[in-house]
């Protein structure tokens, strides 16, 4: 059974649906969850009257008002702490970081106040909070605005960390995150905001959620497994299309969740294909791909590997500005194709 | 012994020690402050006495157990500052909220914890208030959010609790405490700003015990007038060794919050007898004479005791009986805390996530598969 790629990347959904871009999927998810539960509210810089720095929260302030959509001053450590405290006291905040780069100012509140509290209190104090915002590289925003935090937050027990790729992921994972009684780090991608995807009627149901901790096989294949998250999933599918013309069938796994990692799905795929390439936008050292390789080494899938597992990653440098340099700082489709052929000894 | 139980007028603040001499309430951006006289009933007096004495004895017992290595890690003791915790609780109710930093044993008690479960937490036993998972700095009760180890982080958290109070419209408020050391933290100023903009029902309280670890206030702060550091936030400074001063100031602050005026800042001038923690002898940056002077002239428990005795609100015997009862309570708690078993290893990975299915946790080796339950 071969995947039939469609020009609109409808992720295998054969039912006709309206194309919804990732931004609107996030917007609709928040709108529905705000309506469903009065305790949910959104705070962050420009989320209210500006309609969101990237327009993700467009229309929400007009609909829900000052009480539930709150513009904050540019004080991440303070407002992240306030969001966590509100979660302590029974509300369900969505705390937006304009980009995840700015979360470094508030990272103590995310890790020490949010992630660890349920454990330290031996279950007395849950923390039902979502931190969300765009993560990773964008276009021309240079070094301080381009870092990927999947590995940083994925490292920490007490957090759930998700990284949606398409609109179905964005919608379902955000709903799941808001409904989760635990701290969720929600890593969006600015370059995906404007990309449309068909959504089936099922996905558009108000109670549609994508379970946190479950990866999705976006394309079935037999020769090699590509594991990725966020925007790079699209690159993997593109690489798979090109490779298919040469008779190489790639299985593409969309992680959807960074933590907890769905090792079972990865292992099942590797045990079928015998080859593994991980693809991520973040830096290589101590990254998501490193973790996947280590897990495969330590588990049953190792015995099925016919070649060492390798990683395709961002280049190990701060992000440069000039377009030609930036293009060469991130994994490109040709890097994925090259790596697949190397692993398959082609 | 039956004694008449008159309502009594007490005069606030009439003692001095070391570097400062508060003779009145200091106000910042406030036309008037709390009343300079307060009424103490016999019942209240005995309650405050007993609670302060309980905190005192509990902390001294913790000192003992620490030196015997039965308590380990960090242990930040509160003896000397009892009037703050007890006075604050006297000005709010248990349906209000409170959060503090790591010198938290006293607050855990005033917020509804028992000596038993506090001590068993210090000794890391399963009967501890956090089942041995938290330790000295991470104790929680209803409407008490710890116990926080990162200096200053608790202040924005407290404002978040206050935001929830306002959001839910429940007329409750949040008391957010920090020390003179934390008072310079940027996130506190961020919190002042947002609390004021959004008129959150928060009482900021700076427990100024003169020293942030080994650094005196003069060496850490360009301005040591902590009650003014909120700038546009009204502030008041009172004697934190006098439980009535603290109570009246807290009541005043609570009224301010509940009337929708937004935040207010209180500075309590207080003193800790112990060093910063059990690993700090506390005498390299201050003199023993200073500590002794505070003990003899300004001890919060002695002050309350003297007032009650000199106003015939209680007899010496009655107070001695309370002392004996408290001693027994502490001994029983210590007994429990030293004999209760440690947490079961099954509990190692539990309480990572709330309301979740059990899941596997990687142990120290790839073959060690542990389970986490909610």
| Rg over CA atoms of chain B | 21 Å
Low-confidence stretches of chain A: 1-16
What helical percentage do the residues of chain A reach? 25-40%
**Terminal Cα separation of chain A, in Å?**
24 Å
Shape of chain B: globular
SS-based class of chain B: alpha/beta
Descriptive account of the structure:
The complex is a heterodimer of chains A (346) and B (374). With 346 residues, chain A is of the alpha/beta class. Chain A is 33% helix and 17% strand. A seven-stranded mixed beta sheet of chain A has the order 3-2-4-5-7-6-12, sandwiched between helices. Chain A has a five-stranded mixed beta sheet with strand order 9-11-10-13-14, sandwiched between helices. In chain A, α8 packs across α12. The longest helix of chain A is centred in the first third of the chain and has 15 residues. The radius of gyration of chain A is 20 Å and the shape is globular. The two termini of chain A are 24 Å apart. The N terminus of chain A is likely disordered. With 374 residues, chain B is an alpha/beta fold. Chain B is built from eleven helices and twelve strands. Chain B has a six-stranded mixed beta sheet with strand order 2-9-10-6-5-4, sandwiched between helices. In chain B, α1 packs across α2. The longest helix of chain B is centred in the first third of the chain and has 26 residues. Chain B is globular, with a radius of gyration of 21 Å. The N terminus of chain B is likely disordered. The chains are: A alpha/beta (346), B alpha/beta (374). The interface between A and B is large, with 47 and 48 residues.
